[in-house]
UniProtKB/TrEMBL annotation:
Its cofactor is FAD. Pathway: Amino-acid degradation; L-proline degradation into L-glutamate; L-glutamate from L-proline: step 1/2. This is proline dehydrogenase. Residues 43-307 form the Proline dehydrogenase domain. One of its GO terms (biological process) is L-proline catabolic process to L-glutamate. Binds 1 FAD per subunit. Substrate binds at K98, R296, R297. FAD binds at M143, Q171, K195, G196, A197, T234, H235. It catalyses: L-proline + a quinone = (S)-1-pyrroline-5-carboxylate + a quinol + H(+). PANTHER family: PROLINE DEHYDROGENASE 1, MITOCHONDRIAL, PROLINE OXIDASE. Its EC number is 1.5.5.2. It comes from Bailinhaonella thermotolerans. Keywords: FAD, Flavoprotein, Nucleotide-binding, Oxidoreductase, Proline metabolism. GO terms for molecular function: nucleotide binding; proline dehydrogenase activity.
Length: 315
């Protein structure tokens, strides 16, 4: 119930305005977000890489309503990738991209992908993939609400024709995901498996934690037995242990899969796993459009919520 309320709040412009003007809220933001500018993300990336971790950088923002905004976002990624190359951070650093930030929902009713929007997002994403290739690194498409999955996987398939290392995210809370993993487990594929951070109806998604975890385990097994590069995105210690055990059972070397976590979440576990020889990648978001991302993090960890609400009320 609390999670659903928070996820509804993540789309409320009124609450977003309140959050943005509360100065103390910044301290919660700082835990999960590298800073407002690309330079902040690159500074954090250098620190993490020198500690033996890898990084995927996300320019925060989603659901753009103007084409010019989508073009600016693509331009920002191209410039970021140039700086990743210049700073010698490729292939340790790659980028993560939301298609709704590149225009996927433009031209329709604004709530779901539309054919015009998909074309705009595909063109923008192709520019980013070309820039990543020139920089010597990769792009992974984030997965957003359940109504975007077919559209995002369709755009992924088109991008992979010219940019076969483009990756995608699969969310284990969706009932369809084991099938999607089977379809994506072929040679060269890069699939980031997470539990899922959006609200979805019971017809499309498992709602009990145990069912989501069991689905995660099934998807993980498919990806680890496949011929692609699984990216195990979770902070859940039991699922991380399962991933490492399945990889060992399947005779996978550490470099043929990776463990991934969010910036600010279980940083000691990130360092420990890397020291144990695992390939660990940290998802580092930056930008001033942090509201939706932050509220999804609070929905995962209600213990952070009380602190955040107090900061909103200025107490
Ligand atoms: P949980 O059961 O939620 O958490 C396990 C433990 O991790 C908790 O007990 C707690 O100790 C710790 N923890 C988890 N979250 C937090 C937090 N916010 N603050 C503090 N501690 C915490 N979701 C999408 O829907 N689409 C995406 O494209 C996407 N990309 C992701 C990329 C990466 C690299 C990662 C790591 C996650 C991504 N997610 C994405 C989010 C994901 O779906 C989950 O919402 C999130 O990872 C929490 O689930 P969990 O697997 O860590 O398990």
């Amino acid at each position: 119930m609390l999670r659903r309320t928070l996820l509804a709040a993540s789309r409320s412009p009124r609450l977003e305005r309140a959050a943005r003007t509360a100065p103390v809220a910044r301290s919660v933001v700082r835990r999960y977000v590298a800073g407002d500018r690309a330079g902040d993300a690159l500074r954090v990336t250098r620190e993490l890489c020198s500690a033996g971790l890898r990084v995927t950088i996300d320019n925060l923002g989603e659901d753009v309503t103007e084409r010019a905004h989508a073009e600016r976002t693509a331009h920002e990624y191209v410039a970021l990738l140039r700086r990743i190359a210049e700073d010698g951070l490729a292939p340790w650093a790659e980028v993560s991209v939301k298609l709704s930030a590149l225009g996927q929902k433009l031209g329709g009713n604004g709530a779901a992908p539309s054919p015009d929007g998909e074309k705009i997002a595909l063109d923008n994403a192709a520019r980013i993939c070309a820039a990543a290739e020139a920089a010597g690194t990769t792009v992974t498409l984030d997965m957003e609400d359940h109504e975007t999955v077919d559209s995002t996987l369709g755009i992924l398939a088109q991008l992979r024709v010219d940019h076969p290392r483009t990756g995608a995210v699969i969310q284990s809370y969706l009932r369809r995901s084991e099938g999607d993993c089977l379809a994506l487990a072929g040679p060269g594929s890069r699939v980031r498996l997470c539990k899922g951070a959006y609200d979805a109806p019971a017809s499309a998604a498992f709602t009990r934690r145990r069912d989501i975890d069991l689905s995660y385990a099934r998807c993980l097994r498919v990806l680890m037995n496949g011929r692609g590069h699984p990216m195990v995105a979770t902070h859940d210690p039991r699922l991380i242990d399962l991933a490492v055990a399945l990889a060992a059972l399947g005779g996978r070397d550490p470099g043929t899969y990776e463990l991934q976590m969010l910036y600010g979440v279980r940083p000691r576990a990130q360092a420990r796993l890397a020291a144990e020889g695992q390939r660990v990648r940290v998802y580092v978001p930056y930008g001033d459009d942090w509201y939706g991302y932050l509220v999804r993090r609070l929905a995962e960890r209600p213990a952070n919520l009380a602190f955040f609400l107090r900061s909103l009320l200025g107490r």
